[in-house]
């Protein structure tokens, strides 16, 4: 599903669920080698096969594989009409780890970003004319303390050095623990989406990026409508040229929810953060393994 990201670029957001693509059960934690994936590995390049084979646990290898399949699927959808095919697409990474398509058609700008956590694999992509800047970043994270037995306060303490003092105050001002947790992870996913978009990774000091999310504190339940939740600031000035979206996604159970954050370049943007907590955000297109394989072909 296409969504207007600026006057000259289109952004797609794709979602794949590991639990839908693969049967869960005791075998989900099998150690490598992951023989159950052998038939699917022919649909990705040799570098991807090597990366997937390095994962010790099958669940991690499956998420990586879904991401590599999504990258080809999304590129073909966004670059429809070009001479590119599933097997002819070539990918690489910048010196700081940002993925990109090597063999883009002449005159086209294309950027994409991948993230995964627990059951979800997300890809955001944006395309436009080459003379227009096309940049996108995405991050997804389950709204839960990421280690067993941990508390919200412990999580916030580990994030302390990456948060602006105003963000810390906003988190601590939330009365309920679940609200503090959701707000802390909202800040984190938005920051991750931005540094993925600019391609700086760990070289960017996250404290330079500050979000004011006053409009997000009352929206913890799925079903709310989209609205302006706040703004982003870089080096204490509005993040001119950027827009952000924060969406809440449903997991496999009523208690399993995720934050999905996207950041994209928009010449008219002033750091706006849009909050969307609908059960199935209209800008997110869910893709099954069957749909991925319907377009796939063997890659040498």
Automatic annotation (TrEMBL):
GO BP term (any one): lysine biosynthetic process via aminoadipic acid
CC annotations in GO: cytosol
Stored InterPro entries: 4-PPantetheinyl_Trfase_dom, 4-PPantetheinyl_Trfase_dom_sf, AASDHPPT_N, P-Pant_transferase_sf
Record has Transferase as a keyword: yes
UniProtKB keywords: Transferase
Stretches assigned to the 4'-phosphopantetheinyl transferase N-terminal domain: 36-126
UniProt enzyme class: transferase
Name of this chain's protein: holo-[acyl-carrier-protein] synthase
Organism annotation: Rhodotorula toruloides (Yeast)
Gene that this polypeptide is encoded by: FGENESH: predicted gene_12.137
């Amino acid at each position: 599903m296409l969504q207007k990201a600026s006057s000259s670029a289109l952004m797609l957001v794709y979602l794949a669920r590991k639990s839908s693509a693969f049967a869960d059960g005791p075998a989900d934690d099998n150690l490598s080698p992951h023989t159950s994936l052998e038939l699917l590995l022919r649909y990705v390049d040799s570098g991807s096969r090597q990366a997937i084979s390095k994962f010790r646990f099958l669940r991690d290898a499956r998420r990586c594989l879904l991401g590599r399949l999504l990258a080809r699927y999304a590129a073909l959808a966004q670059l429809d009409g070009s001479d590119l095919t599933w097997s002819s697409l070539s990918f690489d990474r910048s010196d700081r780890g940002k993925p990109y398509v090597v063999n883009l058609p002449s005159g086209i700008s294309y950027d994409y970003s991948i993230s995964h956590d627990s059951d979800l694999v997300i890809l955001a992509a944006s395309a436009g004319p080459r003379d227009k800047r096309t940049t996108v970043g995405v991050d997804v994270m389950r709204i839960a303390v990421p280690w067993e037995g941990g508390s919200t306060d412990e999580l916030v303490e580990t994030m302390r050095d990456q948060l602006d003092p105003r963000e810390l105050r906003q988190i601590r001002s939330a009365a309920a623990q679940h609200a503090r947790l959701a707000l802390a992870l909202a800040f984190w996913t938005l920051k991750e989406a931005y540094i993925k978009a600019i391609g700086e990774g760990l070289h960017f000091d996250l404290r330079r990026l500050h979000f004011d999310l006053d409009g997000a504190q009352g929206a913890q339940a799925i079903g709310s409508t989209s609205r302006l939740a706040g703004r982003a600031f870089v080096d204490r000035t509005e993040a001119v040229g950027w827009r952000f979206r924060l969406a809440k996604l449903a997991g496999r159970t009523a208690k399993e929810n995720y934050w999905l954050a996207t950041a994209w370049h928009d010449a008219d943007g002033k750091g706006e953060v849009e909050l969307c907590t609908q059960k199935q955000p209209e800008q997110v297109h869910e893709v099954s393994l069957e749909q991925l394989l319907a377009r796939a072909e063997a890659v040498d």
